[in-house]
C-alpha cells in the first residue's frame, strides 16, 4: 500500500506541470486550520490568564488567578467530579446495551435488515440533542406514557414527573450516545474474520464460548475506541443537563456556557474550558496509546 | 448455516440467539419511540404537548410562519459552513493522500480533532478569538466556527474514498499527458464524488442541528432553529415545537439516507 502510494506520487512529481503543487494544495487547509483552529486555541489559553471586565470583555493580565479560583472552589471541583461520573455511567451503560445490539446487527444474514437498523441508528445520531432531549422531557412528564406505565406496574405509587432528575439525564445521555457506541462496535465486529469463528466452532466450541474467546478479544480495540468516544462526548454535554436535569445535575460544560453566555466572564469560561480540554486530551491520548496508535478514533 | 452447524447448536444456544433478537428489538424501540411520539404530537388539536395527543389536526402547522426567519438563518449558516468544511477537509485529505509532509501528523490531527472537542469549548474559543481581533457578533463568525468544527466529517470520508481509490486510473491519465488539474477534474473527483457529497451533507445536517456554538457566537442577534426551540422550551410547551421537530426529523432522515446511499453504506 505505502510503496504503491510513493511510486505514484513520485511519478506525479516527475512530470509535474505545477512544480509547487505539493505546497500549493496543502496551503489552503493548513492556513484555514492554522488561522481558525490553532490560533484561536492559543488565544483561548492566553485569555484564560486574562482579567474580566464588566460587559463581556477582558484585558491582559497574565495571572493564574482564574486557575486558583477553579481549583480552590468546592463548587467547581464538585462539578468536575460530577461530570466525570456521569460520563462514566453513560459510557458503561452504552457499552452494556450497545455491544449486544452491535453484535446482533453485525451478524445478521440479511444485508437489507443490516442497512435498515444502521439507517435508524445513524439518522437518530444526527438529530439535535435539543429535539431528542425534548422528546424525553415529554415522555417522562407526569401525565405521559412512562410514569403511567410505571404506576400500572407498581413501580411508582402515582404518576409523577420523572423529569428533571438524575434518572432522566442518564436516560437522555444513553439515548444520544448509544449510536456512537453501536457504530464503532459494529465496524469492529464486522472486521472479525468469519473463518476464525468457524474454526472455533468446528473445534467444538459453542457460540457463547466462541464469543468469549474469539470475538470479544478481537474487538477489544472497538470497545476501547467506542468507550473513549462516548466518554469524551459525554464530558462535553451541555444541552441535556439543561433540559433533563436540575441545577444539581449541571455539568462542567453548562458552567462554562453560563460563565460566558450569562455572566459574561470569558476569561473564567476559558479557564474551565482549558481544564476540561486537558481532561479530554488525557483520555484521547490514553485511548490512542491503548489501541496502539494504528487506528484513529473516527466517527 | 450448514446442517452440521445446526446440529451443533443446543437448546441453550438457541435461547441465547432468541434473547438477542428480543433485546435488539427493544433497543430499536427505545431509539424510535421518542421520535415517533414527537411526530405524533405535531398533529394534536389540543393546546398543549401531551401524549397521547387530544385529537387530530393540522392547526399547528400554520404556526410555522413564526419560524421562517430561524429556518432562513439556519440554512444561511449551514450551507456556506458545509461548503467551507468540505473544501478544507477535501484539500487536506487530497494532499495528505498524495504527498509527504513534515507536518503531516499535525495537519491530520487539526482536521480530525475539532469534532471530538466539547462544542462549548469550540464556542468559547471562537468567542475569545473574535473579540480579540475585534470582530464579534457577525454571522460569518458562526459560519467559520461551524466550518472548523465540522471539517472532520468531509476529511475522514474523503480520506477513506481516496485510500480506496484505484490509483491506476489516475496513472493512466497522467501517462497520457493529462495535467494534474485535469486528472483531478476528470478522474479523481468523479471517483470520490459520493464521499464528497456525503461529507458535505453530514456537515450540513450537523450545522443545522448545532446549538451551543451558535448560541455563544450569535451575540443574541441571530436566531437559528435550535436556538429558537431551546428558547421556546423555557417559556411554553407549544405543539409548534413538535411540528418543527417533525420537520427536522424528516430533513435529517432524508439527507442522511441520501448521504449514506451515495457513500455506498458508510458503516459497511
Count the beta strands of chain A.
2
**Name of the CATH first level of chain A:** Mainly Alpha
**End-to-end span of chain A in angstroms?**
24 Å
Biggest protein-protein contact in the assembly: A-B, 104 and 104 residues
- Could you state the oligomeric state of the chains shown? heterodimer
Mean pLDDT of chain B: 85
The run of helices and strands of chain B is HHHHHHHHHHHH
Radius of gyration of chain A: 24 Å
Which ranges of chain A are low-confidence, i.e. pLDDT below 50, for 5 or more consecutive residues?
A: 1-6, 11-15, 295-299
Number of helices of chain B: 12
Mean pLDDT of chain A: 84
The major β-sheet of chain A equals: 2 strands, antiparallel
Task: Give an overview in words.
The complex is a heterodimer of chains A (299) and B (268). Chain A is 74% helix and 2% strand. Chain A is built from 14 helices and two strands. Chain A has one domain: MetI-like fold (Orthogonal Bundle), CATH 1.10.3720.10. By secondary structure, chain A is an all-alpha fold. Chain A has a two-stranded antiparallel ribbon. In chain A, β1 and β2 form a beta hairpin. Chain B is mainly α. Chain B folds into two domains: 39 residues; 198 residues, MetI-like fold (Orthogonal Bundle). Chain B is 73% helix and 0% strand. Chain B has twelve helices and no strands. In chain B, α2 packs across α12 and α9 runs antiparallel to α12. The two termini of chain B are 22 Å apart.
Throw out a few tags for this protein:
heterodimer, A: 299 residues, mainly alpha, MetI-like fold, two-stranded antiparallel sheet, 14 helices, 2 strands, globular, disordered C terminus, B: 268 residues
Task: Kindly summarize this structure in a few lines.
Chain A is mainly α. Chain A has helices spanning 2-14, 21-47, 65-72, 74-106, 111-126, 129-140, 145-152, 166-190, 194-202, 207-218, 220-235, 239-244, 252-262, 266-290, and strands at 51-53, 57-59. In chain A, helix 4 (74-106) runs antiparallel to helix 11, helix 8 packs antiparallel against helix 11 and helix 11 (220-235) packs antiparallel against helix 14 (266-290).
